[in-house]
Amino acid sequence: MKEEVVIVLDFGGQYNQLVARRVRECNVYCEIYSYRTDIEKIKAMNPKGIILTGGPNSCYEPDSPTYTDELFKLGIPVLGLCYGAQLMSHVLGGKVERADVREYGKTEVFIDKKDSKIFQGVSAQTTCWMSHFDYISKVAPGFEISAHTADCPVAAAENEAEKLYAIQFHPEVLHTAEGTKMINNFVKNVCGCKGDWKMDAFVENTIKEIREKVGDGKVLLALSGGVDSSVAAGLLSRAIGKQLTCVFVDHGLLRKDEGDEVEGVFGPNGQFDLNFIRVNAQERYYKKLAGVTEPEAKRKIIGEEFIRIFEEEAKKIGAVDFLAQGTIYPDVVESGLGGESAVIKSHHNVGGLPDFVDFKEIIEPLRDLFKDEVRKAGLELGIPEKLVFRQPFPGPGLGIRIIGEVNAEKVRIVQDADYIYRDEVDKAVAAYKAEHGTAPSWMPNQYFAALTNMRSVGVMGDERTYDYAVALRAVNTVDFMTAEAAEIPFAVLQSVMSRIINEVRGVNRVFYDLTSKPPGTIEFE
Ligand code: XMP
Question: What residues bind ATP, as annotated (predicted)?
């Protein structure tokens, strides 16, 4: 059990994970629980503070999510945000009503209670992110209004003596200019947290915990070369050395040089002490994929082949005590195990375990971490930045970035084109940063080259060509559920184009994909 924990009670709001991340940015450990969590369980966790999130309902409707008023009488500070603020007011005897107009977007908030602990150091007028229909028309007894907006009489209210705070806007969203300060004020000034949950301490403690749990047992991990499994491998290796075996399946669908990079870090000449097994299964995959053009069929073959190879390797190794997985906190929450958010994706790595590996228990050393925290842990462990800051890369790899049949030649083309594209974008971003001190607004969240199945006539030198067209994809996205094509400067695209045409044999055209998601997907399959 962590010494200091703040709990986020999730009422179905879209920003639940953001709230927890902001708290952790204050170096205070934070976990998300559904509003259905029993009060006894919450008491047993002895949290330093509780935050109630927003949510899509109206708290005065009979079937809306609610919580017993006992929660507000535990003596534990409570901060309600949006729906949470309304619910707190409603449960404690205030009034919440439907407003005539929805207040949405960036809004100027005026702080009325200058000595409020939660607004310490915050400007008297500050920009906040509002998103609500209902509003608190009357505060609960014992509360005083601490902030308002032009349209909203109670932008914030508090009962300082009982340590209860209600905020109508969303301090967790970056559009709220001083939101981080407010959350920091809550966890430090109100809850009295010390804020000593730091990544070096996490790494040290986790290594200790792994040692205690594993004893002299054996651990098996499927290493994909992605951020999560790499950091899990790093942690386990530091904890138990050669008791860990990592199986890395090179399916021949990785980005250029990636297989060797993974081996460089985790293999026998790398910086970690572990048993590293690289399975070079390129030919095996290409054989299976020969003649297959349907995207789902390709995905299925790639997935099944991985399981088969992993199974073969696991059989060679024999019984192990633990199977390690790189599950991270958003996987846990999105699988419906943590908060209240609808099950967005069913993650194969939470819950569903391979039945062909002979193991006793599962071990998930990153289960408590957000992605950016996983990256920090990776740096702390000395994993190279290049690997730690890798973009998301799908499990089926380049197999779903090649339209039509996959073969070695097409993989070579897309690897080389993708390498050039990433290199040019990275250089352009670095140049922009050097000049402006920040990343450019067009900085894509994911960018890669794909291979269309189109061949067309071109001319190179004096010769007629009949070659492939490469598609460049780059998107700006927050959650990868929706996305816009990134506005990469034309000059950058042009240099990518000319390098690809000149350097990659078999390509005579380059397209930029302007499609947003929906209707497109981010991947290109
Ligand atoms: P789409 O193409 O669905 O992609 O818009 C959304 C995000 O998910 C990634 N993606 C995958 N990741 N296994 C993964 O681990 C997969 O099969 C897979 N398919 C898509 C994609 O790269 C993007 O970030």
Answer: 224-230
Options 26, 30, 82, 191, the catalytic residue = 82
pLDDT in tens, 4-25: 999 999 999 888 889 999 999 9
State the residue range of the domain holding 330: 199-397
Query: Does 61 reside within a domain?
Result: yes
Tell me which residue has its CA closest to atom 19 in ligand 1: 394
Is residue 173 a contact partner of residue 15, using CB atoms and an 8 Å limit?
A: yes
Domain total of the chain? 3
Residues of the chain under the 50 pLDDT cut: 342-352
Last residue of some domain: 145, 161, 190?
190
Condensed to tens digits (0 to 9), the pLDDT of residues 194-204 reads 999 999 989 99
Say yes or no: 385 and 412 in one domain: no
From the number of C-beta atoms within 10 Å of its C-beta (0-12, 13-18, 19+), residue 28 rates as buried
Residues 391 and 407 in one domain: no
Same domain, yes or no: 210 and 290: yes
Q: CB of 521 closer than 6 A to ligand 1?
A: yes
Does ligand 1 come within 6 angstroms of the Cβ of 515? no
With a 6 Å cutoff on the Cβ, whether 523 touches ligand 1 is yes
Q: Which of 4, 103, 172, 380 is catalytic?
A: 172
Strands (E), 241-383: 244-250, 275-280, 322-324, 361-363
Of 172, 190, 208, the domain-final residue: 190
